[in-house]
Design brief:
It is a single chain. By secondary structure, the chain is mostly helical. It has 2 domains: 1-65, no CATH class; 72-110, no CATH class. The chain is built from 6 helices and no strands. The protein has helices at residues 7-22, 27-44, 53-57, 61-64, 78-88, 98-109. The longest helix has 18 residues, at 27-44. It is globular. The relative contact order is 0.08. The mean pLDDT is 80.
Length: 110
């Protein structure tokens, strides 16, 4: 968390971090997700010095509630799957379609 964050943002960070740990994310990944989410909310509320365009235009994390990530019939988007494959170092990902990316990621979990 950035220095000078409000107690509300500190609580929000801890809540998100704990939720991610409960879902099975690593400590490092849980902290990253929590920090990004809180920083986005700070930017949307005008609490940060700078803000990216997507932070300001996109719907809030609370309202979205995971709509675009790992839920519903479609699940994660192609771009989300591709970024996850990139993060995990899956070879040949640029030639894969959405279904192939999903299978490669599922195979890698085992």
């Amino acid at each position: 968390m950035p220095r000078g964050s409000s107690p509300k943002r500190e609580r929000q960070y801890e809540h998100i971090r704990e939720s991610e740990l409960d879902r099975g994310e690593s400590e490092e990944r849980a902290e990253e997700i929590a920090a990004r989410t809180v920083n986005k909310e700070r930017a949307r509320a005008g609490e940060s010095e700078s803000a990216g365009r997507t932070s300001l235009r996109d719907m809030s994390s609370g309202r979205r509630g995971g709509r675009r990530s790992h839920s519903g019939a479609a699940g994660p988007t192609y771009d989300q799957l591709y970024e996850e494959a990139k993060r995990r170092g899956i070879k040949g990902r640029s030639d894969m379609d959405k279904a192939q990316l999903r299978r490669a990621l599922d195979d890698r979990k085992s």
